[in-house]
Amino acid sequence: MITDRIEEIKAAVNEQLKKSSALQDVQDIRVKYLGKKGELTSLMKSLKDLSAEERPKVGQAVNSAREVIEGYLNTKTEELKAAVLAAKIESERIDITLPGRQPITGHEHPLHKIRREMEQAFLHMGFSIVEGPEIEDDYYNFQCLNFPDDHPARDMQDSMYITDKILLRTHTSPMQARTLQAHEPNEPVKVIVPGKVYRWDYDATHSPVFHQMEGLIVDEHIRFSDLKGMLEDFLREIFGPQTKVRFRASFFPFTEPSAEVDISCVMCGGEGCRVCSHTGWLEILGCGMVHPNVLRLNGYDPDKVNGFAFGMGVERIAMLKYGIDDLRLFYENDMRFLNQF
Ligand code: PHE
């Protein structure tokens, strides 16, 4: 009987769908039963062999079976699609409870940090920042600064020469001459000059390349007490308000009078310790009133204006401020060192 066959087909489809786990299986079952050569389709084709009386009834039964089977297939298809989606969601799940990965960001090198602090202190006092060439002429490095011909720094052994007259600057002071020459005669100047300088030295406190910061003020009626007050303010800003400052007579060819400036030891506060060689003091910079010859050599009139200048090593300031005992650490790029700043 055709009607029995219909029931068998429905049951078979149901059975096979239960076992299938992939969309392709469902598609195969669809073809097998409802496709052009499918089993239900061939039942439909066999209707023509039935009597006119039976044909509509059986035809209706086949059609409704087709709808039922389509319903099974569609339901199974939806189920499988949902399962595929759920599996995809599960496999792509992000565990938001895991801590994020911190990107490694760089930070300022301790030498830049101290240089910036030093610059800030001087900018607040009204200085401007200028920079000059590291490859310098003997003329600016020595001659314009009143160095005598036989000064030891002019010796090939102490400075790095490129030719007889061209060398790597040994200090930032040539910018004193360049700055004065760049101005109208007797025009006031107030600048600091940060930058690299070069000397033939290498040990725990000396590097052949290091940094200095120069300062120069020229104007009418500048007094030594202006120099003292300004440097005291600067040093207390960098090393703290408790810092004591002392001036000792010294000599530089380009300043007169000249002084070496000491601060009370940052380690022992002046008691005396290994760092300050038990003196309680640390030498920190050189300074003085601009030598009249320097003014003259660079187009200024020492009878009309005067000024002061100072120069200090940036590494030395950083070493004392941060308690670093070997200057070479600044250049070795050891992250264990750098990450402390
Ligand atoms: N140029 C001097 C040095 O390198 C420092 C200095 C600068 C001294 C300005 C006095 C005035 O030692």
Break the fold down into its secondary structure elements and pairings:
Layout: H1 2-19, H2 23-34, H3 39-45, H4 54-91, H5 110-124, E1 128-129, E2 135-137, H6 138-141, E3 166-168, H7 174-182, E4 189-198, E5 209-219, H8 224-239, E6 245-252, E7 255-264, E8 281-290, H9 292-297, E9 306-313, H10 314-322, H11 329-332, H12 335-338
Parallel strand pairs: 1-4
Antiparallel strand pairs: 2-3, 4-5, 5-9, 6-7, 7-8, 8-9
Helix pairs in contact: 1-2, 1-4, 2-4, 5-10
The chain binds phenylalanine.
Q: How many separate structural domains?
A: 2
At CATH's second level, what is the architecture of the largest domain? Answer: 2-Layer Sandwich
Percent strand equals: 15-25%
Weakly predicted, low-confidence segments: none
Please trace the helix and strand order, writing H or E for each element. Answer: HHHHHEEHEHEEHEEEHEHHH
Number of beta strands: 9
3D structure, described in words:
There is one protein chain. The chain has 2 domains: 2-92; 110-339, Bira Bifunctional Protein, Domain 2 (BirA Bifunctional Protein, domain 2), CATH 3.30.930. The chain is α+β, with helices and mostly antiparallel strands. The chain is rod-shaped, with a radius of gyration of 45 Å. The strands form 2 sheets. The chain has a 7-stranded mixed beta sheet with strand order 1-4-5-9-8-7-6, with helices on both faces. Strands 2-3 form a two-stranded antiparallel ribbon. A hairpin with a 2-residue loop joins strand 6 and strand 7. It has helices at 2-19, 23-34, 39-45, 54-91, 110-124, 138-141, 174-182, 224-239, 292-297, 314-322, 329-332, 335-338, and strands at 128-129, 135-137, 166-168, 189-198, 209-219, 245-252, 255-264, 281-290, 306-313. Helix 2 packs antiparallel against helix 4 (54-91). Bound molecules: phenylalanine (PHE).
